[in-house]
């Protein structure tokens, strides 16, 4: 008998619920096509959780994610909750604690230009003609993501720039890219 996969579904806020509706349709297609046993449970997170439970990350949401085989996450945040203290806003009060709890440290952002879509690519025609298939790894736990900008420095009469310095240690880079390049 095949394994039952249980997925915690966290639609969240903004476009999250709309995207999640479509993601669940894809999940249903996968389930049907490959005769997989997949169950889902929905949990509030972010602004929706603030509205329904008074906090951005209810304990029931964390427990549901812990018990699941995977988490399907929408998005959190929006203007409605910007007036709250920073640690109670959806992003800092839900997304960051979830990342910390589950020791998640990076996003994988694939990008591929399929043949026949070159005309719709915003890159120069000579680049688009060759296509591309890349994977960007975005670090999420420190460094530039949480870096504190230094005081603005004047670079021209009417321009200033801020620098966010960051040194990555070997143990950090090996977590993201364990193979030598």
Automatic annotation (TrEMBL):
It is an enzyme of class 1 (oxidoreductase). One of its GO terms (cellular component) is cytosol. GO terms for molecular function: 3-isopropylmalate dehydrogenase activity; metal ion binding. Its EC number is 1.1.1.85. InterPro entries: IsoPropMal-DH-like_dom (IPR024084), Isopropylmalate_DH (IPR004429). Gene3D superfamilies: Isopropylmalate Dehydrogenase. Residues 6-181 form the Isopropylmalate dehydrogenase-like domain. Keywords: Amino-acid biosynthesis, Branched-chain amino acid biosynthesis, Leucine biosynthesis, Magnesium, Metal-binding, NAD, Oxidoreductase. SMART domains: Iso_dh. GO terms for biological process: L-leucine biosynthetic process. This is 3-isopropylmalate dehydrogenase. It comes from Escherichia coli. The lineage of its organism: Bacteria, Pseudomonadati, Pseudomonadota, Gammaproteobacteria, Enterobacterales.
């Amino acid at each position: 008998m095949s394994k039952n996969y249980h997925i915690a579904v966290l639609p969240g806020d903004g476009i999250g619920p709309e995207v999640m509706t479509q993601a669940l349709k894809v999940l249903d297609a996968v389930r049907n096509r490959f005769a997989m046993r997949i169950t889902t449970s929905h949990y509030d997170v972010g602004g929706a959780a603030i509205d329904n439970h008074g906090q951005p990350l209810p304990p029931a949401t964390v427990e549901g994610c812990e018990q699941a085989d995977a988490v399907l996450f929408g998005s959190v945040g929006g203007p409605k909750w910007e007036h709250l203290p920073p640690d109670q806003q959806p992003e800092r009060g839900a997304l960051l604690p979830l990342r910390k709890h589950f020791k998640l440290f990076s996003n994988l952002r694939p990008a591929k230009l399929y043949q026949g879509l070159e005309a719709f690519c915003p890159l120069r025609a000579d680049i688009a003609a060759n296509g591309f298939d890349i994977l960007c790894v975005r670090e999420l736990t420190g460094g530039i993501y949480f870096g504190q900008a230094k005081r603005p420095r004047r670079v021209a009469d009417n321009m200033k720039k801020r620098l966010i310095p960051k040194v990555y240690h070997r143990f950090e880079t090996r977590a993201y890219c364990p193979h030598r390049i």
